[in-house]
Design a protein that fits this description.
6 strands; 194 residues; 9% strand; alpha+beta; Cytochrome p450; two-stranded antiparallel sheet; globular
């Protein structure tokens, strides 16, 4: 799964950072202040780069890769929320709905990394996103994926500005390629050395 989901999420983050230039600049400023230009960012820098971490969390919330999660099966007859679910029934979790629930998220249709930053500028420890599922069946690769995406994205942000090349447009994020996991439609970006 990681062979497709990590590249898909990286593509979505690049799209969002290109679309929201102020977020790209704020991440770059944070990296410049904490890491500088003499070495690449590492996982040890993660705790000192709260805005970068918040941007990745927000991208995972905003652009849910697996909107219905992974299918599960009821192992016995049960009742949930007043609904009878017979043994053997396929059960899907709407991760997309959880990530866009107005009872949980202020302005859920808006891309706002700041929602994951507290008043002191620190990352909010309680992460209400569930891009990797819930409970005992959460994706086993969650830690690997989060770490990989963090190192990739901070390294790219440290070294490049992302922009749309002349004569090109970004794909509409509401029109993704659907499958077990979603991916953006093909697009081109221009990377310029910083």
């Amino acid at each position: 799964a990681a062979s497709t989901t990590i590249p898909f999420m990286t593509s979505f983050i690049l799209l969002l950072l290109t679309k929201y230039k102020e977020v790209q600049r704020k991440c770059q400023e944070e990296i410049d202040n904490v890491v500088g230009q003499n070495r690449l960012p590492t996982l040890q820098d993660r705790q000192f780069l709260p805005y970068c971490e918040a941007t990745i969390r927000e991208a995972m919330r905003y652009q849910t890769l697996a909107p219905l999660g992974v299918p599960h099966k009821a192992l016995e007859d049960t009742t949930l929320g007043g609904y009878f679910i017979p043994k053997g029934t396929m059960v899907l979790t709407s991760i997309y709905s959880a990530h866009r629930d107005e009872k949980v998220w202020d302005e859920p249709d808006k891309f706002m990394p700041e929602r994951f930053i507290d008043n002191d500028g620190n990352i909010i420890r309680k992460d209400m996103t569930v891009p990797f599922g819930l409970g005992k069946r959460v994706c086993a690769g969650e830690t690997f994926a989060r770490q990989n995406i963090f190192v990739q994205m901070t390294g790219l942000l440290q070294n490049f500005d992302f922009e749309v090349p002349d004569q090109c447009t970004l794909p509409d994020l509401s029109e993704n390629v659907s499958g077990i996991s979603e991916s953006p439609k093909p697009f081109l970006l221009k990377f310029t050395d910083r």
